[in-house]
Specification:
Elements: H1 23-42, H2 55-68, H3 81-96, E1 108-112, H4 115-134, E2 140-144, H5 149-158, E3 161-165, H6 176-181, E4 187-193, H7 205-215, E5 218-223, H8 230-235, E6 252-255, E7 268-272, H9 275-279, E8 283-285, E9 293-295, H10 304-341, E10 346-348, E11 355-360, H11 366-372, E12 380-382, E13 387-391, H12 401-418, E14 427-429, E15 432-434, H13 439-453
Parallel strand pairs: 2-3, 2-4, 4-5, 5-6
Antiparallel strand pairs: 1-7, 6-7, 8-9, 10-11, 11-13, 12-13, 14-15
Length: 464
C-alpha cells in the first residue's frame, strides 16, 4: 500500500470553503480514509503506533470520549467529573508504579498530553524546585545518549544545560561512572530510561537511584514507553529490574497511558514522589485584570473527552486485563526475538524487553528493511549503528504474525547477503524507516520533510 493511502483522490482544501459540505459526505470521506489507513496496521506488521488495535475497544473509548468531548477540563466547577477522572487516572498509575513504597513523600501526579508533555513538566518542576530550594540559577541535567529527544527539547525551552552520558555499546545502558563524574552544584536531576525507545533496554536505575540519594538530586525515570507494561511483565515473572518508586532515589516517573495503557492518543501521566516537586510546576498570576489565574501545568484548556476515555480504558481493563495483554505481548516478542537470534548475521542490541532492535555486522541492516517493506512490514529505523526496531503491541499477537515475521526475515537476510556492499534504499527518520517504497510514496515523504523544514508541517514522532 502506498503511504498516501489513496488520499490524493479527495479534494484539497486550500481555503475555507464558501459553502459547507453535507455532514454525510464529510463522514463518508473520513470513513474511506480511516478504513484504508487502518488496513495498514491491522496486519500486525507495524512496529508500535497502534498499541491496542482492538476496534471494539476503540469504539468503547469513542463513546466515553463523546460524552465529554465538548468539556473543557479547566472548568472544574461546572464539570466536577474532570477532577474524578484525572484524580483516579493518577491514582491508578501511582498504584501500578508502586507509589505506596514512597513512604518518605506524598506521591502525586499530573495528566499531560503525551510523553513529551510529561517530560517537559518534570524538567520544569526540577528547574523551579532547584531554583527556590537550592538557589540554582544555572541548572543542568544528565541523561543517557539513548534518552528521548524530549529531554533535549525541554532543556532548549527551559534554559537547562543538557549533559549527555555515553552508553555501553553492548548493553546499551548508561555509563553510571560517567554520570557520577559530571554531577556538580548545578545538577538538578539525572535521567534513566525504563525502557529506552531505541532498544527496549533498561538503564541501571538502581545504581542511578543510589547516586541520586548520595548527591541529593532528583532522578527522573522515563517510563513513557515501558511504564504501563513493564510492571505487568514483572508480575508475570519476567527478569525486569526494579525501576519505580520502590527505589528511594526515584523522584519522578513518566508513563504514557496512550501507549500500553490503551487509551486514546494525547494522554500521559507524570508521577512525582512528593507533592512539593509537583507543585513547583504550578503557575500563578494573581494581579491580572481577568481574574486570579492558576495553572497546574503548561496547558490551559484540556480535553474532557480524553480524560473520560483514559479513565474508561483503565477501569475497564484492571489488573487482570493488563496482565492478560502483557502476557501475549511478551510471549510474542520472545518468539520474534528468537527469529532474529536464529540468524548469525543479525545481532540483538542489549537485553531487550517487549521491544527489541537488531543490527548486522555482515551487511547494512537496512537491506532487510528494503526487502520486508514491500511485504507490509513497517519498522522504526535507527542509526549509529544502523538498526531496525520493533515495538511489539497487541496487533502482533494475532495468530500467524510472529510466524510471518520469521519467514519473511529469513528471506530478507538472504536478500541482504546478496546485496552486501551496495547502498540500501532505506534511511532512518524518527518513528519510521523510509525508502524502498513506490516513487509516489517516496515523493510524498520528501514533500512532507520539505514542508517541515519550511515550518509548515511537522513529521509525527512515534513516542508522542
Amino acid at each position: 500500500m502506498s503511504l498516501d493511502s489513496g488520499i490524493g483522490r479527495f479534494a484539497v482544501n486550500r481555503r475555507l470553503p464558501q459553502q459547507g459540505r453535507p455532514r454525510e459526505e464529510v463522514l463518508a470521506e473520513l470513513a474511506a480514509i480511516a478504513a484504508e489507513e487502518d488496513a495498514f496496521w491491522e496486519t500486525g506488521k507495524c512496529s508500535g503506533t497502534m498499541y491496542c488495535g482492538d476496534h471494539e475497544h476503540y469504539q468503547f473509548l469513542t463513546e466515553a470520549f463523546g460524552r465529554f468531548a465538548h468539556v473543557n477540563a479547566l472548568q472544574r466547577d461546572m464539570c466536577p467529573s474532570m477532577t474524578k477522572f484525572e484524580g483516579e487516572i493518577i491514582a491508578m498509575t501511582l498504584d501500578i508504579l508502586n507509589a505506596d513504597a514512597a513512604t518518605d513523600g506524598s506521591p502525586v501526579g499530573t495528566v499531560t498530553t503525551g510523553g513529551t508533555g510529561s517530560i517537559l513538566h518534570a524538567m520544569l518542576a526540577y528547574r523551579e524546585w532547584a531554583r527556590s530550594e537550592r538557589g540554582v540559577t544555572a541548572p543542568n541535567i544528565i541523561k543517557p545518549e539513548t534518552g528521548h529527544p524530549a529531554f533535549d527539547k525541554a532543556c532548549h525551552l527551559f534554559g537547562i544545560e543538557l549533559r549527555k552520558a555515553p552508553v555501553d555499546p553492548v548493553t546499551t545502558q548508561v555509563d553510571v561512572g560517567w554520570v557520577a563524574g559530571h554531577i556538580d552544584e548545578g545538577t538538578i536531576a539525572l535521567v534513566g530510561s525504563a525502557c529506552n525507545y531505541g532498544y527496549g533496554t533498561i538503564d541501571p536505575i538502581e545504581q542511578l537511584s543510589e547516586l541520586a540519594v548520595q548527591r541529593g538530586i532528583g532522578l527522573h525515570v522515563d517510563g513513557c514507553l515501558g511504564g504501563l507494561i513493564l510492571p505487568f511483565g514483572q508480575k508475570l515473572g519476567y527478569d525486569i529490574p526494579v525501576y519505580d518508586f520502590r527505589l528511594p532515589g526515584v523522584t519522578s516517573i513518566s508513563a504514557d497511558t496512550h501507549k500500553y495503557g490503551y487509551a486514546f492518543k494525547g494522554s500521559s501521566v507524570v508521577a512525582f514522589r512528593d507533592r512539593s516537586l509537583r507543585n513547583a510546576q504550578y503557575f500563578y498570576l494573581t494581579d491580572w485584570s481577568g481574574g486570579k489565574y492558576c495553572s497546574p501545568g503548561i496547558e490551559g484548556s484540556r480535553s474532557g473527552g480524553l480524560l473520560a476515555a483514559t479513565w474508561a480504558a483503565m477501569v475497564s481493563l484492571g489488573w487482570e486485563g493488563y496482565l492478560r495483554y502483557a502476557r501475549q505481548i511478551f510471549e510474542t516478542s520472545s518468539r520474534m526475538q528468537d527469529a532474529v537470534r536464529s540468524h548469525p548475521e543479525l545481532r540483538l542490541l542489549g537485553q531487550p524487553t517487549f521491544l527489541f532492535s537488531f543490527t548486522s555486522g555482515e551487511f547494512d541492516v537496512y537491506h532487510v528493511n528494503d526487502f520486508m517493506r514491500p511485504r507490509g512490514w513497517r519498522f522504526n529505523g535507527q542509526q549509529y549503528p544502523n538498526a531496525l526496531h520493533m515495538a511489539v503491541t497487541r496487533p502482533q499477537t494475532q495468530p500467524g504474525v510472529a510466524e510471518a515475521f520469521a519467514a519473511d526475515l529469513a528471506e530478507a537476510v538472504a536478500y541482504a547477503r546478496q546485496h552486501a556492499g551496495e547502498p540500501a534504499q532505506s534511511s532512518a527518520i524518527y518513528g519510521s524507516v523510509v525508502g524502498g517504497m513506490t516513487a509516489e510514496a517516496d515523493e510524498f515523504i520528501r514533500a512532507v520533510m520539505a514542508d517541515m523544514m519550511d515550518g509548515q508541517q511537522a513529521v509525527p514522532g512515534e513516542t508522542e
